Amino acid sequence: MDRQRIGEFLDRFVSYASGATTIGLLAVADRSGLLAWLGEHVSGTVEEIAEGADLEARYVQEVLSGLTAAGSLEYDPGSETFTLPPEHALFLSDESSPYFMGGYFDMIPAVMGQIDGVALATRHGGGVGFDEFGFDMIRGIARGNTPSQEVFLVDRWLPAVSGLIDRLGAGIRVADVGCGSGTAAILIAMAFSSSEVTGFDISEEALIVARGRAESVENVSFHNSAADAIPLDPPFDLITAFDVIHDLDQPLAGLTRIRDALAPDGQFLMMEPNASSHLEKNLNDRGALLYGISALHCMTQSLAAGGEGLGAAWGREMAEDYAHRAGFARFEPLEDIANKFSAFYLLSP
Question: Which terminus of the chain has fewer Cβ atoms in its 10 Å neighbourhood, N or C?
Fold first, then answer.
């Protein structure tokens, strides 16, 4: 036995466990209003924070201490004040920031609650269905995707497709596949009032949220449909799918249907996790997070539906292969969109 390797792995394992408990503390701080208070007031003592946020001081002390030990907060022993640095607030409390990661405060607890189901499926096959993760997963996905979409979708992502902004302004038919709670579809509809936007999803709970959010937006509608069943006639000029295709039970059938639903000069904008199809190129913290969330949610909910279980880390190489197998003539990575977590591809018939 190599005692140095034993010590190194002990340190690594402690980092695994502390990361899990830190997400738990952040979830408590998020749901209790503690993070919101810190985001607004920046710093305070335990007593000031507890009184200001109307929380129990003993819990506040323990949560703040844990988040300080994890590096999320800073502590001044002289004044006994805890501070949320503005750079950290971008990720933890500012829901208008494109860096906001609060979706994980809902998604990680949701997937952890289904560990037994995933373990059972690992033994006997099948999986845990999307609806079994509950509304926390729907809320987490929305909170995770909305900030970046609000900041970048209309001003950066869509303009990366040559001529698309002019076409949207003139008025085209747009479909957002796997629209979830509707953020992207609503943003496109609001920015381009001459275009007709339709969102499709299989989660009725998510669609209820989407319809409620879109009550005052006349040129957007939402329908319950799987990707491989979206309508073909009349065809769409633009179809989008943001972090969706790898979740499908039949991704090739979904891509083929999207191809068939496009007008001859139509375009498909696909966003997927930024990864390689080769494990050896994903051996880092982002890769570990991607495979973890895949096994605990993306892959298992696909397998639960009798699907392929493609997984979130299918990667660029496999995405291109599937695109061509689905009948797309063109697969173009949009390299001008710089994003550590997401890759963008433009597909055309």
Answer: N
Fold (topology level) of 107-348: Rossmann fold (3.40.50)
d(CA 257, CA 51): 56
Amino acid 192: pLDDT:
98
Domain with CATH 3.40.50.150 in the chain: 107-348
The predicted pLDDT at position 338 comes to: 83
| Cα angle 332, 333, 336; round to 5 | 120
Topology at the third CATH level for domain 3-94: Arc Repressor Mutant, subunit A (1.10.10)
DSSP symbol at 127: -
Measured between alpha carbons, how far is residue 184 from residues 19, 157, 226, 241, 286 in Å? 31, 11, 17, 9, 24
Residue type, 69: A
Query: In which order are the strands placed within the sheet that holds 81-83?
Result: 43-44, 81-83, 74-76
Residues (pLDDT < 70) of the chain are none
Exposed, middle or buried, 5 (CB in 10 Å: 0-12/13-18/19+)?
A: exposed
